[in-house]
Amino acid sequence: MFYELVRKALFATDPETAHELTLESLRMGYRVGATRLWCKEQSQPVHCMGLEFPNPVGVAPGLDKNGDYFEALGSLGFGFVEIGTITPRPQPGNPKPRVFRLTEAQAMINRLGFNNKGVDHLVRRVRRHNFKGVLGINIGKNFDTAIENAADDYLHCLEKVYPHADYVTVNISSPNTRNLRDLQGEDELDALLGKITERRDQLADEYGRRVPLAVKIAPDLDDEAIPAIAGVIAHHRMDAVIATNTTVSRDGVEGMEHADEPGGLSGAPLKPKADKILASLRVALPRKIALIGVGGIVTGQDAVDKIELGADLVQFYTGMVYRGPDLVNECLQAIAERNT
Question: Structural domain boundaries of the chain?
Fold first, then answer.
């Protein structure tokens, strides 16, 4: 009820401004201990990627791109928080306006374009922290790095964040960085993951710890692409796949205000496409490779659906915009009831 009142005020402002106000308010609330009022701790340990997650519900990247708020977000009851996407150099992203609400559909369209303060800023923020959950760091490439040199950016970020991450996600599926999704091609993906996993193994020897790697894919892949991608992922011994990113489809929002804006669609209308990819991956991948289900979670049942399709963990972002912190507890309760 409280968030419903707050949401009315937030939705009267520009989406990016509302985002910033929400996160700053959350940080202040965390500092004075107020965020504990939202959190009903539910211990539901999940062993996944060689890590112990306090519970299976996490924050999707994009909510905290720079590592400025992850401790406050974690205090809301999440078992894990994934921050980023981060790039080697700071970049402003695409011109504003670049975020649009489709309130009727519980959806959003964004074309942010990996706006972030750069990997060095993030590393300064995460070097010492008090978050007790699992911290994932999502890495990408700068917009002006040629696609044939993309591996250099991913390797740079991997080396920087490796000592501080519980797992690292390779984001090759944002629709808002030109040509990025080309990296999902079988040959391109094979070359990229080969370089990344080779460097990860070297870093594991250097630091005495093996940090798991995940890859995040798009919901717009055709049926023929899934087995090929799954084969490459299995060959390179990736630890997890995150399914999925936002979609360029406008299924379910046709004719709505802002529906024709370029960018990635998230929220409730994404769920059917994301669920289809998730289910296909579970069939195509070895069971030892974990799946993280994301896309369209706006109710507890949505989270349960992804678990039943084969997800080991779930994440959401847009659902928080529409439902607030209550969605964390709702998802945890629904998953607990499903497991009893």
Answer: 2-339
249 is catalytic: no
Q: What is the pLDDT of residue 180?
A: 97
Residue 313, Ramachandran bin (φ over 0: left; ψ between -120 and 50: alpha; else beta): beta
Burial readout 249-262 (b: 16 or more C-beta within 10 A, e: otherwise):
ebebbeebebbebe
Instruction: Considering the candidates 174, 249, 266, 280, report the single residue annotated as catalytic.
Output: 174
Structure tokens given for 240:
């997890």
The whole model's pTM is what? 0.97
Distance CA 315, CA 294 (A): 5
- Comparing 5-9, 38-42, 205-209, 269-273, which segment has the lowest mean pLDDT? 38-42
CB-hemisphere CA count at 13 Å for 63?
26
CA-CA distances (angstroms) from residue 230 to 11, 120, 212, 280, 290?
40, 32, 17, 10, 12
Please classify residue 195 by burial: count the beta carbons closer than 10 Å to its beta carbon, then call 0-12 exposed, 13-18 middle and 19+ buried: middle
Look at residues 156, 159, 217 and name the one whose alpha carbon lies nearest to residue 188: 217
Burial grade of 152 (CB within 10 A; 0-12, 13-18, 19 or more): middle
**End-to-end Cα distance, the chain:** 28
Tokens, residue 325: 């912190």
CATH topology of domain 2-339: TIM Barrel (3.20.20)
At 1 the pLDDT is 53
**Residue 157 · residue 88 · CB < 8 Å:** yes
3-state secondary structure of 295: coil
Q: Do residues 297 and 303 make contact, with C-beta atoms less than 8 angstroms apart?
A: yes
> Residue 207 class from Cβ within 10 Å (0-12 exposed, 13-18 middle, 19+ buried)?
exposed
Q: Which two tokens stand for residue 192?
A: 């990229």
